[in-house]
Structure formats: structure tokens, C-alpha cells
Amino acid sequence: MTEVAVVGFAQSPVGVRDDSTTSGVEMLVPIFGQVYAQTGLTRRDIGFWCSGSSDYLAGRAFSFVQAVDAIGAVPPIMESHVEMDGAWALYEAWVKILTGEADIALAYGFGKASGAELRKVLALQLDPYLLAPLWPDSVSVAALQARLGIEAGRWTEKDMAQVAARSRAAAVANPSAQVAGEVSIEDLLARPYVADPLRAHDCAPVGDGAAVVILASAERARELCDRPAWITWFGHRAESAALGARDLVTLAPLGPPDGPPPDVAELHAPFTHQEIILREALGIGGTTDVNPSGGALVANPMFAAGLARLGCAAQAIMTGRADSALGHATSGPLLQQNLVCTMEAQ
Amino acid sequence: MEIAFDYTRSLGPVLGQFMTGLRDQRILGARAADGRVHAPPFEYDPVTASPPGELLEVGPGGTVVSWTWLPEPLDGQPLNDQAALNDPAALNDLAAQPRPFGWALIRLDGADTAMLHAVDPGPAGPAGMRTGMRVWPRWAAHRVGSIRDIACFAPDEPTPEAPAPAAGDTVSDNTAPDHAAPVTMTITPVRLRYLHTASPAESAYLRGLAEGRLLGQRCPACGQVYIPSRGTCPADGVPTDAEVELPDTGTITTFSVVNVGYPGQQVTPPYVAAAILLDGADIAFQHLILGCDPADVHMGMRVRAVWRPREQWTRHADTISHFTPSGEPDAPYESYGRHI
């Protein structure tokens, strides 16, 4: 099978950005420049482009077409889009290289979540007959999941606060983070509920951002990157959309069926308790450094945060900090869909 | 900007029965091949992928299996529906303040799965919410076959002295659909608000309009001029930072005569929407053509901007009211053909 590696990654700063529009262009042009500089590539070297974004977030139709302005589409390009996190765009790009239709592919994701009431917009990803008409906002729905786990003895509010505190402490070294800093568990637990049992620190901040990853086939990867992050495995699972009919606190095993635990794992958990669910589903124990970036709890640009997890995992290999890494992305409500990618140095 | 749309969906056989049941104050579930009863019902068995057999009635009482409390509800949520979408009469009862409520996963009596809905615990507020609490549906007065026919659940057990209103009681509501007919469609109004920000390049364009100027940008790579610029060259993908001021005259490259009315339309049809290539620009932008018979509009026609009165100039696209024929001879096709 054709080997494919990540050879470049960049992400924008994340926050409520007044300088950026829902087209994503303003956030994408600088980070495209960064990955071109990292790899020595130009836009004309990219054989396939794939983006992840959402019109519901942008509040206008075909918003992803506007984003193509950031590429420069003359002469014409081969381009695709997923109405999902950019991690799924990366998956499509990986398949494109495997088929031999492209040697180099670029996946990007972007979202300007601050333009709308995100927790309300996300109600529209729920069942359109039985759930969405009630406008169950994303934070409330996550709170139902968190309580189920608490009352089943799977975690406590203190466990959740510890996830938040560790994420924020790790984010001090992450220039893309929206929140960072040392916080005490006691202080966090003294704060009011946003949606009982969730407090503000249990929920990812709402911010705007973008991320980009370049993939290359084996022949090209070594010339573009000193230490490519070779993709060794992809896994994808989708759970039932019927929230009340599935086990909301336990996921079937998500990781590769065998092999040692990765040195680094970047998990896309928009809520603290979801990191605990994911650790269990991935069987990640003590030796793996989980979310050294701070994860989605410090920066959760919609439709880019999952791609950024895969990118951060790859970066740990490309920079020599790790020999093996796992990136996870989620889409849909309550970890409904999960994409896992493992990578290693050669 | 507020975007609203009534999503109108057909229900199919299973959800059609379920929604018909809600209209008639019955909650239906489906038994799966493994014996578990799903409420709401599945359309296809999660184990065998077969459609369910005959639906069975569950509830109406149920038990809360998980809950949360929403101190700051959002417009449109249960008990907080400003548009009173299912119940125009409720407009009169609207509380000025948002009404906090609980969300819960509720396992209805006789079911093995849970249903997500709102819970109104009454004056107790969040202290009245707990896992294991018993709740019953509070039916909407005006039911149409929607999940919102259940206004919410509440911990008030219907008593024989005060029975829940029977399905037939609402027949007197002359706005209700024919209760003999099954529900086949559901309408879900969606209303979302967006606050769009203008990029630095768009801001420069809009500020220029307020000064009566048309400001575009030139690509440093290919030299093309874009107005309004989005700050990057769509052909080269590089930032456009050189400002270019353009005249308010141009050429119609293509156009459409609008004969169809639609909600929110600003101009009475027929009128002309045209792509106008300003002199010196390399990309056309769309504007209205007024001041002539729509039948006279044609490709190559020369036009000029008609600005609103000076005191009405703002950072808004409508500072230029429309374009109108300038009376100049037509532009030769070669002068604009590359920009169609």
C-alpha cells in the first residue's frame, strides 16, 4: 500500500476575531503561507485540496467556495469539501493519495463560531424530527451525558475540573490557545454551573480559527520534511443519532487493535468529561502524554479543532518530541462520530 | 442578520404514526428484535435493520434518567418560545423574562430507551430536579403532530379528579387539523441570528462608500483589480494590499431580468440585476439597473452609479442606490469579454 505522511501543519490563533469573516480567507491565507514555508511547496505543487467547514456556522450558502479565494484557483485546481471537521477532509485527502490521483494534498478546516449563537446552531446537528425542533443546545446536551457518568460512578466533578486545569496549564506553551494558565481545582469547583453539572471550564471556549495539514506520498514526503509523520492506521466509528438509545458514557474501543500506546495523543474533547470517555475508549494509560497542546478545551475552532488535533499529533513527531502519536477528531453530538489516526516516525 | 426558514419534511410511516400519536396525546414506541422497546420509535431496528412492527403505546408517565438545568434559556427552546410557533394564543402569555427549565432524558413507562425533552419542575426550580423523579407530559393546547405537541414534562401526576384533557377535547379548536387524518408532514421553523464582521479589506471598501468613493485593491502578483476586495487575490491566493480608487462608471457584462417576487424583496419586479464591470476593475460586481425599460438593458451597456443623497451616505452597500444607463455608446465586447 502507498505510504502517506504528514509533512506540514499550521494553525491560526483562536479567539473571537474581529479581523476575520465567515469566508475563512483571512484566517487561512497566513497559515497556508506557513505550511508553504515549512515544506518549500507552492500552491501549484498541491494536487488535491479538501476543506471542512459548515454553512450553518457561517450563516450563508456555499461558504466553502468563498474560502477557495485563499488558495488561488487559477489555473483550476482539484478541490473537495466535507461539511464536517477538517479531519474528515484529511481522511479524504489520504484516500486521494492512496488512489494515486495525487502525490501531495492539502486539508484545511475553518470556522467562525463567534458570529452566531454556537450552542444553538449546534442543535441543528441533532435529529431533525425528534430533537432539533426543541433546540436542545450543545452545552445542555453535554450536561446530560456528564451527569450520566457522574451518577454511574465513572467520574466526578473534581475529575472533570482536573482535566480542565491540566489542559489550561499545558496551553501556556500553545500560542494558538484561547484560554491558558494555572488554575486551582478548588477555584474551578467554586464557580457556578452553566448547565448543571457543567461549569464554564468544562466547556470548550467559543472561538474562530483555522488549521491546515499537508500530506505527501512516500516518494515526496522525505524530500519535503526531515521527519515525516507516517500514517499507520485510520479508524472511524459513528454511533446512533438516537441519543436516548445508546450508551452515552462508554464508546466501543476506538484505537488500533494492537501495538504499544502512543507517546503522544491529541484528543478532540469539547467537554472535560468527554476526554475521560475517550481515554477509556482508546485505552490510553499513564505513559501517553495526552493533549500536550491543551486540546479542544483551550481552543476549539469549529471544523478545524479536530484537524488541529491530528496536526498537533503529527507535529510531535515532525519536531522529534515523539516517535509515535495518535490524533482523534469528533463530529456530531456527544462524541457521535470519532476519527482516529495513528502516526509514527520511521 | 436573522435567517429564518420553515423546514418542511415528510415523516414516513414510523414517525408519521408517532407524530399522529402525539397530536392525539399518545406516545408510541417500537419493540426491537432484541425485545427492547424504543421510545421514540426507531425507523429501522438497530440490530436487524428491519422496520418496526405495530407501534405500541408507552408512558405517559416516565422516569428521569439524567437531567440538567438551564438558568439562561435560549429563544425557541421549550417554555421560551418567543414566536410561540405551535401556539399563537400563547403570545399573550409570554413572560418578559426567560424562563429557566430543565432538560432531561426520560425513560417512559414501558420503554427501555430514553427521550430527550424539557422538564418544568415548577416553583422548586433546579432543586426540584433529580434523577429518578417521576414526570408526565404536559400537552400543548394546539397540537399539530410535532415533538412540541408535548410542551414539556412536569412532576404533576394527572389525577382522576383532574384528568389530562382527552384528545377529543381540542376538536373545538377550529385551527386544529382534521383529527381523523394521519400526520404526514412536519414543519420546523428555524431562526438563527448572525453577526457578520467585515474584513479589513471589506471595511476599507465600506468606509470608502460613506465618503462617496469606490475603493478596490490590486493583486501584487497578477495586477488585477478587485472591488470590493476580500483582501486576497482569488487567482493567486496572495494578499492584495495596494488600494485603487475607481470611477463610478462601468459596463454591464451580463444581466438578468427579475420577474419573480419573493419575501423580503426590495424592488418591485420586473427589474434588472446586472454584473457591472467598473472602469479599471477586473471583476464585475452585482447591482440594480433602474431608470430604463428592462427590455433595453443589454451586454456592453454603459452605466453610472446613482448615489443616494449626500446625507444618506453610510458604510452600507445601498449608499449606491442603483446604476442607470449613462448614455455613452456601448463598450466593445473585447473590452469586457474577458470578465464575463
Commentary on this structure:
The complex is a heterodimer of chains A (346) and B (340). Chain A starts with a strand and ends with a strand. The mean pLDDT of chain A is 95. Chain A has eleven helices and twelve strands. Chain A has helices at 25-39, 55-58, 63-67, 86-98, 118-121, 138-151, 157-170, 185-189, 218-224, 272-282, 305-318, and strands spanning 4-11, 48-52, 79-82, 104-112, 193-195, 198-199, 208-217, 229-238, 264-266, 289-290, 324-331, 337-344. Chain A has a domain at 4-117 and 206-231: Peroxisomal Thiolase, Chain A, domain 1 (3-Layer(aba) Sandwich). With 346 residues, chain A is α/β, with parallel strands linked by helices. With 340 residues, chain B is mainly beta. Chain B folds into two domains: 2-193, no CATH class; 200-339, no CATH class. Chain B is built from two helices and 18 strands. Chain B starts with a strand and ends in a 15-residue tail after the last strand. Chains A and B meet through helix 1, helix 5 and helix 6 of A and strand 1, strand 5, strand 6, strand 7 and strand 10 of B.
Q: How do the helices and strands line up, and which of them pair or pack?
A:
The complex is a heterodimer of chains A (346) and B (340).
Chain A (H helix, E strand, L loop, with lengths): L3 E8 L13 H15 L8 E5 L2 H4 L4 H5 L11 E4 L3 H13 L5 E9 L5 H4 L16 H14 L5 H14 L14 H5 L3 E3 L2 E2 L8 E10 H7 L4 E10 L25 E3 L5 H11 L6 E2 L14 H14 L5 E8 L5 E8 L2
Helix pairs in contact in A: 4-11, 7-10
Chain B lengths: L1 E9 L1 H12 L3 E5 L5 E2 L17 E3 L3 E9 L30 E8 L6 E5 L14 E6 L10 E5 L30 E9 L6 H11 L3 E5 L6 E2 L15 E5 L2 E10 L12 E8 L6 E5 L12 E6 L12 E6 L15
Antiparallel strand pairs in B: 1-10, 2-3, 2-4, 5-6, 5-8, 6-7, 8-9, 11-12, 11-13, 14-15, 14-17, 15-16, 17-18
